[in-house]
């Protein structure tokens, strides 16, 4: 599903977190959004997912303007979201957590469920088998019937991804999916994202870990201080002087696999000062 963001701005307390940002992601494309700390990545992510509304500009999905729709309405249009912080339902098994993702997309509603109609039982069986397949894809098959809260953090993230996939999204938004993962988990995630891309799923990936996205993305959008400063293929972006100045250059972060906070040491004085201003 095509995603088009046009002239989107969002301010907090008079300070723009995202300012006049435009980007369009073609169906089947894997787009990465990178940028230093405070660049506006998470804000842009929330503006697309519907957790935030823009002060100006439009967001459209497959040509439908959605900037005023809440997140659950965008989900129904086919937007799947994996947040950075694990959002799991405690007191439910891993499989039940994943099944939640699919319920919005099935016909049998609450009433059919409450009345235990045959259509509902059929749907439940279908959803359970879909959920198990998603758990398998994300390496969580062995956890299916265990309480979700017992999963280690990395697996809780994978569980969110399984839940999003179970809803069969047309656009998948991933917010720093590699952060906090161990090397093996990171590799598995990269493989899965590559597989999803090969299957034609449109994805937008916000990521701190530049090396992680550079080998996966078709195109990369670079934000700095709320604005798009570069866009292109990974090779083009890597060679762009504006990107090097703002983000990649001084500590060769492109080759450093880091998560969490971006180090400020070694940045140019100018970059350090402007980044500081953005946080005020
Ligand atoms: N809810 C909020 N209230 C006030 N200011 C906010 C809010 N969310 C973001 N900001 C500010 O907007 C700017 C952009 O933040 P955002 O989290 O979108 O950047 P980011 O690129 O995701 O950063 P990071 O890589 O550190 O997560 C920052 O200056 C931040 O302090």
UniProtKB/TrEMBL annotation:
Does Amino-acid biosynthesis show up as a keyword for this record?
no
Q: Mind listing the GO molecular function terms for this protein?
A: ATP binding; ATP hydrolysis activity
Compositionally skewed regions (Basic and acidic residues) per UniProt = 255-267
Q: Which PROSITE patterns match?
A: ABC_TRANSPORTER_2
Q: Which UniProt keywords apply?
A: ATP-binding, Nucleotide-binding, Transport
**GO CC terms of this entry:** plasma membrane
Low complexity composition bias: residue spans: 269-280
The residues covered by the ABC transporter domain are 3-250
Q: Which InterPro entries match?
A: AAA+_ATPase (IPR003593), ABC_AA/LPS_Transport (IPR051120), ABC_transporter-like_ATP-bd (IPR003439), BCA_ABC_TP_C (IPR032823), P-loop_NTPase (IPR027417)
Renumbered to this chain, region (Disordered) spans: 255-280
Tell me which domain of life the UniProt entry assigns to the organism this sequence originates from. Bacteria
Q: Which SUPFAM superfamilies match?
A: P-loop containing nucleoside triphosphate hydrolases
**UniProt keyword annotation of Nucleotide-binding present:** yes
Listed name of the protein? Putative ABC transporter ATP-binding protein
